[in-house]
Amino acid sequence: MKRFLINITYFLIICALVLTIVSEGVLLKRNYLSMNLSFSHILDRVYRSESKMPSDTLYLGDSVAEQFFSFYENKNSLTINGAVLLSGQYILLKNSLRKNPQITNVYLILNPTSLKQSFSNPRTYNNFVKPFFNFKNINNINPLIFKKLKSKPYSMLSFLSLFKVLPISDIMFNEDGKENLSLFSDVNFEYFQMIFHLCKNNNVSLSLISTPVSCKNQNLIDGFFNDLNEDEQQFMEILNKYKKSIIYLEDFCFIDDLHLTSETLSRKKYLYKSLILNFE
Question: Alpha-carbon distance 100 to 94, whole Å?
Answer without folding.
Answer: 10
